[in-house]
Design a protein that fits this description.
Helices cover 48% and strands 12% of the residues. It is built from 26 helices and 17 strands. Strand 13, helix 21 and strand 14 form a beta-alpha-beta unit. One of its GO terms (biological process) is nucleobase-containing compound metabolic process. Belongs to the helicase family. DinG subfamily. InterPro entries: ATP-dep_Helicase_C, DEAD/DEAH_box_helicase_dom, DinG/Rad3-like, Helic_SF1/SF2_ATP-bd_DinG/Rad3, Helicase_ATP-bd, P-loop_NTPase, RAD3-like_helicase_DEAD.
Length: 620
Amino acid sequence: MGDLGRRVSRDFERGGLLDEQLPGYGRREEQIKLAGEIAGCIVSGSRLLAEAETGTGKTLAYLIPALRSSDKVLISTHTRSLQDQLVHRDLPAVQKALGAKRRVALLKGRSNYLCPQRLKTHISSPQVELWAQKTMLKVLDWSRKTQDGDLAALPFDPFAKGIGAMITATADQCAGSKCAEFEHCPLMKARQKAQGADIVVTNHSLLLADAALKSGDFGEVLPAFDVYVLDEAHSLPQLAGQHFGIQLTRMNFIQWLNDMQAELEAMGDEPALKKDIVEQGRVVLEAWLESGLEALEEAWGDMLKLSDLRRERSEPLTRLAERAEQLAEEIAMVKKPGDGFVGWSEGEGELTRYTVAPVETGPVLAKHLWSRQAAFILLSATLRVSGSFDYARNRLGLADAEECFHPSPFDYAQQAMIYLPRHMPDSRSPGAVATMTDEIETLLRASRGRAFVLFTAWSMLKQVAPELARRLPWDVLIQGESGSRDAILDAFRADTHSVLCGTRSFWEGVDVPGESLSMVIIDKMPFAPPNDPLLQARIRRCEEQGGSGFRDIQLPEAIATLRQGAGRLIRSEDDRGVMALLDSRLYHKAYGREAVHNLPPAPIRDDLADVRWFFEEASE
């Protein structure tokens, strides 16, 4: 077992430190087994895929080995809520219970920290409008009191206020140790703290950005680690597609032009160059509106020559010239994606977005992450599809990883019911939206609100949610209309009978135990849109290799998403609720049996009367 395994085992013993010292601790056999497997992975330096279903207690299962190990450990999550929970609640409580003395640091991405230099530059710039300067004055006042410069502590969202890009710095904009504000830089202080910490908590986006870039004044953004614990690991493939590809928007060029003008303004002795940059900038932005990228490539080529004229005068001008070269490379990549990549565009005119992404994320993750000499523990409540890790292994590029599965301790047969009606029409048929709205209203009246209504498409959300808000006596919170994601969740938790209508961002990473969430309604199987360019490229690749695009990609992806949505319902041993999946295709399509097999092991009913009885029994 090894010293670490024995130490972890002792912590979980009856009458041990967790029993005696950790408030609210309850013994869970699957949690103890998982902790032992994680300890073994740390000792052997291997890779582990671990599915621990809701209620297993996977967080404690990896925190104990991490705190008992002498290795340097990175804990990465997908959602900010879990990241904050780990740093501000779980780690302090477990450290206290164990008497562990490990140094812990929180490290977020650049956009979470104030850049004092950019705040100083923009707050006094004549190019910045008065309304923005007034908001920045509030940030300046806050900056004199903050200990860490984390923008989450502001009483407002600077990005929602329109000043976020002016008070934060991208990697290209950061001057590193050459910056006049380097000694006061919150980001650099956070990184220095992380360098000296035993356990660093971060997020997948920063981890993947670090793996993709491997550049900057300090080399790697993150230090080297002996152990990587990646919670919410099911989200890694989608994020990897973003970080190992590129996204090109008009704003990329506007930010460069603003930064170049601000630098020349500060220098004060380059009026001719500034005039030429402004004029050529207009040409670039006009070229953006033309179809194809030929005009943009030509216009930006002329801008490259201008940016190169004074690149040796100062470090900021050198960095701006390098950023201009990077943008030229990205234009070329969009015009002709490399082998293994696919490109596409969305939107029109000023809102056009060009994207290039890897067709398969497994190879890039294997190259940039799994090749490191370290132990990797990947955890999620939903890594398997139909009882197999094969789909996750392929998407993650982890063919040689060990695997383990730990079932939920919840009694779904007693705590839950699945409502799967037979009468729902095809969503494309006439009157389908009206039928869907009526069905959801009936269900919500049976549960007296207290529900998530999760849609697979924005179009259905926009048609159904406002009508529900008009008909129902309870507050209906609508994604995109009722505030930010966090604000909607806070309002939902506070109002026991409210209804939350949302799309993909509410299907995972949301934890609402208790009476506030007693029903999850899903409009239909969450298949990805068939016209998605990346999906089409993956299907082509799969079929070229003799596979089936539907069986090997579309169905496993939909089942994995469905499992995440269903997992919102039962979050504790005291929860009771109904999951309604309003897709009658599951009764007559070949894939129906497999999809249902992946739902929680609760009784399946097709009669609304059973749903009403379920809630009436709960109220007795």
